[in-house]
Every structure is written in structure tokens, then in C-alpha cells.
């Protein structure tokens, strides 16, 4: 676990599906990471060696997401352009892109790293 600005983070370096990533984090008493500022986004991006799942999904209600999976409100966003514009209904889970730190939507069955908080 790594401490930063009052929160603890675990960078899990196994590539797994979004659901498996969430289950892994919940099993540790945490959840997939919620990111609330540009500074926190940079910290998370600096800690990952590849693309990683974050705690946002619209699986239950397509195009609707107002809270992270940990229940905190989504205020800060780092989606390029319009957050709700993702490539079709199959792209229901969000990840942080290592290359530029922006968030994007992907099929939840893709395999990425996980960041727990």
C-alpha cells in the first residue's frame, strides 16, 4: 500500500477484467480507485506500469454515471471531450490510460491492471 494525501492505494500489477479488479479490491476492504483531482490523477498515473481500471461503470444504466463505485461523487473527470461519448454499449467500464493519464471506456472483459483505494 502507498499513502498519498490521506488515502492509501494499492497498485495491482496483474491484468484482469474490471469485475475481477473490483472483487480484488473489495476483498482487501477497499474499492477500485476514485480520483477527485488532477493531482490525484497524476499520482495514480505515475504509479501504474500500464493501463488500469478505475471505479467508474455505466453497466447498470447506459450513459449514466454520477458516482464512483465507492459511492463518492464524480466531480473531477479526465475523459477527453464528452465523457458520455463512448464507442457503443459494449464499452461500460473506465480505465486510466498510462500514456497520457486520460480516462477512457472499454469493454469490461478487457484485461488491465487495477488500482485499489
Automatic annotation (TrEMBL):
Domain of life, source organism: Eukaryota
SMART domains reported for this sequence: CLECT
C-type lectin domain location: 4-117
Annotated protein name in UniProt: REJ3CRD
Species this protein is from: Allocentrotus fragilis
Amino acid at each position: 500500500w502507498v499513502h498519498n494525501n490521506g488515502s492509501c492505494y494499492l497498485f495491482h500489477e496483474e491484468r484482469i477484467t474490471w469485475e475481477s479488479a473490483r472483487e480484488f479490491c473489495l476483498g482487501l476492504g477497499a474499492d477500485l480507485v476514485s480520483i477527485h483531482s488532477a493531482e490525484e490523477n497524476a499520482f495514480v498515473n505515475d504509479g501504474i506500469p500500464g493501463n488500469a481500471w478505475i471505479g467508474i461503470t455505466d453497466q447498470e444504466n447506459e450513459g449514466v454515471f454520477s458516482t464512483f463505485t465507492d459511492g463518492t461523487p464524480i466531480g473531477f473527470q479526465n475523459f477527453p471531450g464528452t465523457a458520455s461519448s463512448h464507442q457503443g454499449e459494449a464499452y461500460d467500464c473506465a480505465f486510466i490510460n498510462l500514456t497520457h493519464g486520460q480516462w477512457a471506456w472499454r469493454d469490461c472483459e478487457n484485461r488491465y491492471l487495477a488500482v485499489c483505494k
